[in-house]
Design goal:
By secondary structure, the protein is mainly alpha-helical. Helix content is about 60%, strand content about 0%. The chain has 3 domains: about 80 residues, no CATH class; about 200 residues, no CATH class; about 170 residues, no CATH class.
Length: about 550
């Protein structure tokens, strides 16, 4: 037994007009004499409200009927009885649908939708200001500036494009005035590679020098004189803000940015109020991010200045961002002797940050490893790097070699540390820099051995503190191939970051800051000097287990 749609009585107004004609009365008498199937002409009119219904012949849906069996088992149709069939239907189907309730729920849903749409519209129409500028707005301005994907032939689309340009101009001005939000500073590590790749594509597309625009002429000379006339950083910031606006019509050339860089150095050396290293770095940050977002060429001297200031101020995230830019744009190369001082300065800043324990954010240690060695995940090709895997392609300076070993120890890259140890005698004993005497060579090699001993002890501390009962690292596998071993070290670094992130989430005690008993340098040398790297790795594993027990 199953019930059809229950009537609501909405058609009573149509079936009971105020003035009853004689024909309608006759029709009612005829209806009362019908059988039960047609004796209840109640229901919902079809297509209600679409067109007027005929008065004499109203159209109805099927009435409220029930298909039942009589005493002899023959099926027959009878009217629905609410007192008899209602409880049986609820027991059989679990629910008695009511059309009025469904309509009420639909009405409430429509009201909720209208309220949500009004709130969303009010939120999107909030005027932009420096206080209400969101990180999403900054990201939109950085990634969608100079966009021409909208069809200018369509009037409505053109109006949308004009609105976007005005909004984008406000965002750029707020970016220049207020600086980069902290959230964007953290996410810039992922955004900057996209911007650099977009810049590289733009340079490949514009191969004809005649298509690169005018060189400047008189406007450039006036701009350089204006830069030289700025007495403090505030005036220089206002001048650059006016030039960066699209309506200014003046473009920064490479020579003009060199003038800005020289003027910044003068202001930095003056020591006046408002010209500290932090203020200069904020100015350089804004210039760099604006030129990146506008897909314009970056200046080598300005970018290297940002890297230098970030290293002096020990800002790890800023160091990584500028180092990524400098390596991608070939402002720093591992084969250039003129970059040795900069590489050493940046390496010392990274080492100090690692020793202070600042590289705790997820993915930071992996990024440092990639920037140092040029090897990321196995799916990525080799990238420009600060030091390289080993010093086999060129003769590195001794201080840079020591610094690289200490950084690998801080990261826990045991296998690469072993490869560096095997390269040390060849680089600095045979084909290395010429020494004045054998005594000096022996002294330098002794210092290098002490550096490796300290780096290995730090590596033991990092590896022993990066394991738990349910998460362990691979400390047995070694291939002898420097690239494959670098991939294994990167996997261990990833495991250590997972362990540290879990400890921070649980609020547990961090790993110990020092091992219990320092290892003797002769033990480390004996383990390093094994002919087979697998045997050497086995001895290292025993030393790591012993140091972890003594801690």
């Amino acid at each position: 037994m199953r019930r059809l749609a229950r009537p609501t009585g909405l058609s009573r107004g149509f079936s009971q007009p105020q003035q009853h004609s004689q024909s309608q009365k006759q029709q009612r008498r005829h209806i009362r004499s019908r059988k039960p199937l047609s004796n209840h002409p109640r229901g919902v009119p079809l297509h209600q409200g679409s067109k007027p219904l005929k008065r004499r012949f109203p159209v109805f849906e099927l009435p409220d009927i029930v298909l039942d069996l009589d005493a002899e088992g023959s099926p027959h149709v009878r009217p629905f009885d609410a007192h008899k069939d209602g409880p049986f239907q609820e027991a059989q189907w679990g629910y008695d649908p009511v059309i009025d309730e469904v309509k009420r729920d639909a009405s409430l849903m429509k009201q909720t939708m209208r309220r949500d749409l009004s709130r969303l519209k009010a939120a999107t129409q909030v005027p932009f200001s420096g206080e209400r500028l969101s990180d999403l707005d900054i990201m939109t301005a950085a990634l969608m500036n100079q966009s021409s994907n909208v069809d200018p032939d369509n009037d409505s689309q053109s109006r949308k494009l004009d609105t976007f340009k005005r909004r984008d101009s406000r965002l750029q001005n707020d970016l220049i005035r207020n600086g980069i939000p902290k959230a964007i500073g953290r996410d810039a590590t992922h955004v900057i590679p996209f911007m650099l790749h977009r810049r590289q594509l733009a340079l490949e597309a514009i191969k004809d020098p005649s298509k690169r625009g005018p060189s400047g002429g008189d406007d450039e000379s006036d701009l350089n004189r204006g830069i030289a006339g700025c007495r403090d950083l505030a005036q220089l910031r206002r001048l650059c803000s006016r030039i960066d606006r699209p309506e200014s019509g003046v473009e920064f050339s490479a020579a003009s940015i060199d003038h800005v860089h020289a003027h910044l150095l003068v202001l930095l050396q003056s020591g006046e109020e408002g010209t500290s290293a932090a203020d200069i770095l904020k100015f350089v940050n804004n210039v760099t991010i604006n030129r990146l977002s506008a897909n314009k060429e970056l200046n080598r001297s300005m970018t290297l200045l940002g890297l230098q200031l970030a290293s002096e101020l020990s800002l790890l995230s800023c160091i990584l961002q500028y180092l990524q830019i400098c390596l991608s744009m070939s402002f720093i190369t591992s084969r250039d002797d003129s970059s040795t001082l900069t590489r050493s300065h940046v390496g010392m800043a990274l080492l100090a940050a690692l020793q202070r324990g600042e590289a705790t954010a997820r993915g930071t240690r992996q990024q440092i490893f990639t920037l140092l060695t040029g090897r990321g995940p196995s799916s990525l090709p080799p990238m420009p790097c600060l030091f390289g895997l080993v010093a086999e392609d060129h003769v590195q300076r001794l201080e840079v070699f020591k610094l690289s070993a200490r950084l690998l120890g801080e990261l826990g890259a045991l296998r690469l540390l072993m490869h560096h140890w095997r390269q040390r005698a060849q680089q600095f004993g045979i084909t290395g820099q010429p020494m004045e005497s054998g005594q000096q060579l022996g002294h330098e090699m002794q210092d290098l051995d002490e550096v490796f001993a300290e780096a290995f002890q730090r590596c033991i501390q990092v590896l022993s503190g990066g394991q738990t009962d349910d998460i362990s690292m691979d400390l047995t596998t070694v291939t002898g191939n420097v690239e494959k071993d670098a991939g294994l070290d990167l996997q261990n670094i990833n495991v250590m970051e997972i362990v540290h992130a879990r400890r921070e989430t649980k609020g547990s005690r961090p790993s110990p800051e020092s091992i219990g008993k320092p290892l003797h340098i002769e033990e480390i040398k004996d383990a390093f000097n094994e002919q087979d790297m697998r045997t050497s790795m086995g001895r290292f594993q025993k030393l790591i287990e012993r140091a972890a027990i003594d801690a």
